[in-house]
Design goal:
The protein is about 30% helix and about 25% strand. By secondary structure, the protein is α+β, with helices and mostly antiparallel strands. The strands form 3 sheets. It has a 5-stranded mixed beta sheet, sandwiched between helices. A 3-stranded mixed beta sheet has the order 2-4-3. It has a 3-stranded antiparallel beta sheet with strand order 7-6-11. A hairpin with a 4-residue loop joins strand 9 and strand 10.
């Protein structure tokens, strides 16, 4: 029988605490990342019907408060497998396990005041989060040509973490590649889906262009550096490293006319030492993104 985690300590969960679920400090290219996409990685409904029914109740309450809420599909993080070759010339390869979820279920599980009740007591992260929506977010550590990192300050309009520092990011989107259901995908491609893995990389470039305002042509191909998960409401995010061929001043000029100015109020271009100080004011998944970047920088120094 499942043991449920108690919810008594939910208010003590530090917003900036995190866990690294995967780390690739050398950075993985698109050819080193594949996705196994299927309903085996979907959320499992909870056996407590009262808890399960709270999902729709919370969504209805939130929808009444905010008429602009939209229930779109998201990719659900269901784990990963790392393949490393036995010979030195073989490069590492990661296969992400992704299912489908939606924003409504995310609001009703991960973002619910009852979120800890959805957790199963287990050292296995996949089991721990089997009843939560856990949509896979993304974030980019973008380094300018003058070696500054781009950090946004979230506006007070946003529901989560107003005023906190974050890296540009959002979510890979199923609808961008025409995914509406598992059945539709199976008929086209089977479980290993190259379109989904490509969306992992395309989506983060899209987010940087929308949130910072820089042209896509100024950005390098993203390198996948890992997955972090904040302890507060167990939200996972994939992080990427991107090099920008513009300097800090040029990036600031582009930001002033960015498309997506609603979510952030200010762009900072900071050196590593300053970023270290800002990390304590980041949500856990983004602070984890900074930890992944530091591991990448340390690996560069060694090699």
């Amino acid at each position: 029988m499942e043991k449920e985690k108690k919810s008594s300590n939910s208010t003590n969960t530090e917003p900036s605490s995190f866990k690294l679920l995967a780390s690739f400090p050398s950075g993985l290219s698109p050819s080193q990342v594949s996705v196994e996409f299927g309903d085996a990685y979907d959320r499992i409904p909870h056996s407590d019907l009262t808890l399960e029914n709270s999902i729709s109740e919370i969504w209805e309450q939130r929808s009444l408060q905010n008429k602009s809420l939209f229930n779109g599909n998201k990719f659900r993080y269901g784990g990963h497998v790392l393949h490393t070759g036995g010979e030195s010339e073989n490069e590492p390869h990661v296969c992400l396990h992704l299912g489908l979820t939606d924003y409504r279920t995310f609001v009703g599980t991960n973002l619910s005041p009852l979120w800890e009740k959805f957790l199963v007591s287990s050292e296995d992260d996949f089991v721990l989060c089997q009843h939560t929506s856990s949509p896979l977010g993304n974030g980019a550590v973008v380094e300018t040509i003058d070696n500054k990192i781009l950090v946004l300050q979230r506006s007070n309009n946003v529901g989560e973490f107003p005023g906190y520092f974050v890296f540009p990011g959002g979510h890979p989107e199923p609808q961008e590649i025409g995914i509406t259901s598992h059945q539709y995908v199976k008929e086209l491609t089977g479980s290993i889906n190259p379109n989904v893995s490509r969306e992992m990389f395309d989506s983060i470039v899209r987010e940087v262009v929308e949130e910072i305002g820089v042209p896509a042509s100024s950005l390098s191909i993203p390198a996948f550096i890992g997955i972090s998960r904040r302890d507060l409401n167990v939200r996972p995010a994939a992080f990427f490293f991107i090099k920008c061929n513009l300097d800090s001043k040029e990036v600031q000029q582009f930001y002033s006319s960015a498309l997506d100015g609603y979510e952030s109020t200010q762009l900072y271009t900071v050196p590593m030492i300053e970023l270290e100080n800002m990390a304590s004011r980041m949500p856990g998944c983004h602070r984890g993104g900074f930890a992944l970047y530091k591991l990448m920088v340390d690996t560069r120094k060694i090699t």
